[in-house]
Amino acid sequence: MGAAPRSFCFCVLLCASFIFSALAQDVNQFIYHGFNEDAQLQRDGLASVHSNGLLQLTNTVSPQQEGHAFYRLPIKFNTSSSESLSFSSNFVFAIVPELLSFSGQGMAFVISPSKDLGKAEASPSEYLGLFNASNNGQSTNHILAIELDTVQNLDFDDIDDNHVGIDVNSLISHESAPAAYFSDREGMNKTLELIIGDPIQIWISYDGAEKLLNVTLAPMSIPKPTKPLLSRAINLSHILLETMYVGFSASTGSLKSSHYVLGWSFNRSGPALNLDISSLPRLPHLPRPRAKANDKPQLKLVISVSLIAILVVLITIGAAVYIVRNKRYEEVYEDWEREYGPQRFTYKDLYKATKGFKDKDVIGRGGFGKVYRGVLASNVQIAVKKVSHDSKQGIKEFVAELVSMGRLRHRNLVKLRGYCRRKGEFLLVYDYMPNGSLDKILHTNIKPCLNWYQRFRIIRGVASGLLYLHEDWEQVVLHRDIKPANVLLDADLNGKLGDFGLARLYDHDTIPQTTKLVGTFGYMDPELMRTGKASTSTDVYAFGVFMLEVASGRRPVEQQGSMETVNLVDWVCDYWKKGAILDASDSRLEGTYEEKQMELVLKLGLFCSHPKPEARPNMRQVMQYLDGDATLPDIPPDSTVIAPFSASNDAFSGNSSATMSTIDSILTVGR
């Protein structure tokens, strides 16, 4: 066949390819066998489209530049709906370097909330046109990228200079692997050189039901292998917004490479259509870098000059990097803290222990800050809580109390190892509890749920720890925030009371001066909310609500209907009045519990959460009841003692000496 007929056939095939692409596209699914100027692509930077349909993101002429190409229409991922968040993509790419074995950075498949990364001041070179020095690693980026990286950057923990990585909001990959593909014929992985200049096919798929992201590579001529290169369990529902854009990003550095995309298929709700390899445009006939003998002197000269230039740049920015890193570890330290010795941690040690306080290492969140998991250089696992503190007033006294609480020693208290201070925040260092908080286990559908034996042991353990704080230590410690979220479980599901961020100390036989209203709604003593004055009785009230919550599996305040709320104390009290207090037990226990223990815990919880502080037992009496050293009186359902438990009942608002006498006689049993 002559040249003219061949050209005519090629044009026909190319046109047919574009027509097929246009017909196959919809809002959430499309396929391109080559591209043209009318394709639904938004390009910026160095990105261009060749006459044969080849998409070129960068070139070997422009150093320190970037190129982007995004599908112009937004894709609705609908992460807030019940629909499973799933998608898949298939594309063919090629990377042709300027010099043999030396590449100008890499490229990435990107899902981003914006298709204008260039306008967002994304940087070229090692940032791949995705991020810059200030926003790299920020959770607000909401960017997922599959990087095809050809330069090893130690600042981003790159494993080598020829790898594939899964990036979420940062160029420090969640998971990465050297570029390779699984040979089904040989039953083994075979290395793929990304910068060899030959087309490579890649498949990316995410199963929202399984929360599994797979990435598979292979030479263009080989069908999709049965085993992916990367398979990562990851929940993207918090990363991808409802409306996102899909596309590509690439960059050059001091050295340059041409990054090409030959064809692309994408599907938001199912498997992407397979690319017809025979319909893809061909790469231009560029001279491929080869290792010829007469090239070596010139290559050595170029490399030498480049290395010298790089060395000068590194020396120039070395001082700046040193300053920035020191700034990263900057902390507040005053002379009076020297006496605290090992209880004062350095911020640098905590930063390294938590690998930079990354969101992926957050194990808890609260109104006072985030809690991060970390491992010290001594291989001890810790939990580090960041607490905001904007005022210098009383700082010395506050630190002194923290250090004092670091001396607390009890098997049912989470050990406070020490602290660190930075401008505007405290960092509190605790022992790490592998089973997390009681709140998480108690109020989620984790199966199996805690059995009654485990729950009663946790209740008794927390009571023992609280008795130690109130009576058995050298000072009285008011915890002031007792709730399941602050009870952590060790490897054996033993309960340990933690989070002493709100705790205050005072000497025995003195009246505490704490008047600041703090705590958590639902666990706060009504008397505290009225007067603002905290005492050991305040902790007893919160512990009473805690007991009821553990026994019933219900939160202290729950919404019932659109307007009505149900108070847990009132709810349990109603069952007691009906003579059916065991019906308040957690239905998930399916009646498998010791009835006397369950009745004791529910009634004792009501006594502890009595609205009148003087009617509540102290923690030593509580331990006597729980250990069976004292017997809780059997109160009839219609007793007037029950009435005051209801927050809506005003029968106890007066000074009824008869009622007070009855309650006092009950609570003094076993003293």
From TrEMBL:
<feature type="domain" description="Protein kinase">
    <location>
        <begin position="357"/>
        <end position="632"/>
    </location>
</feature>
<comment type="similarity">
    <text>In the N-terminal section; belongs to the leguminous lectin family.</text>
</comment>
<keyword id="KW-0808">Transferase</keyword>
<dbReference type="GO" id="GO:0004674">
    <property type="term" value="F:protein serine/threonine kinase activity"/>
</dbReference>
<keyword id="KW-1133">Transmembrane helix</keyword>
<keyword id="KW-0418">Kinase</keyword>
<keyword id="KW-0675">Receptor</keyword>
<feature type="binding site">
    <location>
        <position position="386"/>
    </location>
    <ligand>
        <name>ATP</name>
    </ligand>
</feature>
<feature type="signal peptide">
    <location>
        <begin position="1"/>
        <end position="24"/>
    </location>
</feature>
<keyword id="KW-0732">Signal</keyword>
<dbReference type="Pfam" id="PF00139">
    <property type="entry name" value="Lectin_legB"/>
</dbReference>
<dbReference type="InterPro" id="IPR011009">
    <property type="entry name" value="Kinase-like_dom_sf"/>
</dbReference>
<dbReference type="InterPro" id="IPR017441">
    <property type="entry name" value="Protein_kinase_ATP_BS"/>
</dbReference>
<keyword id="KW-0547">Nucleotide-binding</keyword>
<keyword id="KW-1003">Cell membrane</keyword>
<dbReference type="InterPro" id="IPR050528">
    <property type="entry name" value="L-type_Lectin-RKs"/>
</dbReference>
<keyword id="KW-0812">Transmembrane</keyword>
<dbReference type="InterPro" id="IPR001220">
    <property type="entry name" value="Legume_lectin_dom"/>
</dbReference>
<feature type="transmembrane region" description="Helical">
    <location>
        <begin position="301"/>
        <end position="324"/>
    </location>
</feature>
<keyword id="KW-0723">Serine/threonine-protein kinase</keyword>
<dbReference type="Pfam" id="PF00069">
    <property type="entry name" value="Pkinase"/>
</dbReference>
<keyword id="KW-0325">Glycoprotein</keyword>
<dbReference type="InterPro" id="IPR000719">
    <property type="entry name" value="Prot_kinase_dom"/>
</dbReference>
<dbReference type="GO" id="GO:0005524">
    <property type="term" value="F:ATP binding"/>
</dbReference>
<dbReference type="InterPro" id="IPR008271">
    <property type="entry name" value="Ser/Thr_kinase_AS"/>
</dbReference>
<dbReference type="InterPro" id="IPR013320">
    <property type="entry name" value="ConA-like_dom_sf"/>
</dbReference>
<keyword id="KW-0430">Lectin</keyword>
<keyword id="KW-0472">Membrane</keyword>
<dbReference type="GO" id="GO:0030246">
    <property type="term" value="F:carbohydrate binding"/>
</dbReference>
<protein>
    <recommendedName>
        <fullName>non-specific serine/threonine protein kinase</fullName>
        <ecNumber>2.7.11.1</ecNumber>
    </recommendedName>
</protein>
<comment type="similarity">
    <text>In the C-terminal section; belongs to the protein kinase superfamily. Ser/Thr protein kinase family.</text>
</comment>
<dbReference type="GO" id="GO:0005886">
    <property type="term" value="C:plasma membrane"/>
</dbReference>
<keyword id="KW-0067">ATP-binding</keyword>
